[in-house]
Amino acid sequence: MLDAKTIEIIKSTVPVLEVHGQTITKKFYETMFKNHPELLNVFNHANQRQGKQSTALANAVYAAAAHIDRLEEILPVVKGIAQKHRALGILPEQYPIVGENLLAAIKMVLGDAATDEIIEAWGKAYGVIADVFISVEAGMYQEAEQQPGGWRGFRRFIVERKVKESNVITSFYLKPEDSNEIASYLPGQYITVRVKPEGQSFTHLRHYSLSTSPGHAYYRISVKREEAMADRPAGIVSTYLHDDVHEGDILELSAPAGEFTLDQSEELPVVLISGGVGLTPMVSMLETLLEQQPSREIVYIHAARNGSQHAMKEHISQLTQDHPALRSYLVYEAPAAGESCDKTGFIDLPWLQSVTDSNADFYFCGPAPFMQAVNRALKQWGVPAERIHFEFFGPADSLD
User: Fold this and answer.
1) pLDDT-based confidence at 235, cuts 50/70/90?
2) What is the pTM of this model?
3) Is 329 part of the annotated catalytic residue set?
4) What class of enzyme is it (predicted)?
């Protein structure tokens, strides 16, 4: 437990973190990777370049400081981060490295304003926060390993099938090389792939949502090829999977993880909304609902640029024909000549109100601007926060 004086000092730094937080975390990563380049085998290099990781860490540090006297209030955030840590294989002995470099970054950015008293207080606070993460993650490691078909660390899987779903999305069907049982998962969860493409100095790890219902002898991920754009290079892992990984090849996976999951205790109607490759967890949820709660009313809405980028179109169409409780809709931003859809352009509130009911559980996933628009529409409609569920691909961001 922290003493009252330490808590007072930490809370007094909250306004400073609000202003300088991202500068501190950016400096932290630069310093840590310089001192410990081996950690580049764990962290997502693309998120580092784009500033996503430093922003996410700054938000987490700010939240921890603001709630330092009541950390239990941010336990849901802790659990989400801890799930990713477990999936990446973060170890207790790495926390002191993070703490040492975080304190050094605070000192470098704030200069004389970071007095010895403040640095000492943050050292104590970091120790408490790190202990919370280590404890939560220890339970997650144990659960992942001891569940039926579970394992610790990374396990070798064979690419049994590779299926092109659209011009930009390909599915990979993965079976364990040892032919033993695999761990089940909750619809919405992800697995983590570890690869080292030829010419790369470090291993690269990526989380990919499982894109089918649980209960199979394989895992399926559906990966979008991330092409180079003006503000970022091509995706290292996605292009490697698309271009260089073939049927019969081996991929290393950690056990399923993730906090974004389907609540099956409810009987309310469910609305699933996906944009682009955000369909992956939505399809897992959809298939699970149809298998386990076939009478539960479901609306599935998918938005894509056009038909060439629309994955699993025939599969969803067939499910809609086979299940009276399911209605599905297509929204194409710019449909090609002759392509049909239910709405052209973007999802907006008036259209949502015409095809769904606000008395439903809403789940959505897709690019950040897409999710911001959906979230804004649902809030404007008056949908309660507890019935709005979403997931970011990559570090958590804000939908405000």
Assistant:
1) confident
2) 0.92
3) no
4) oxidoreductase
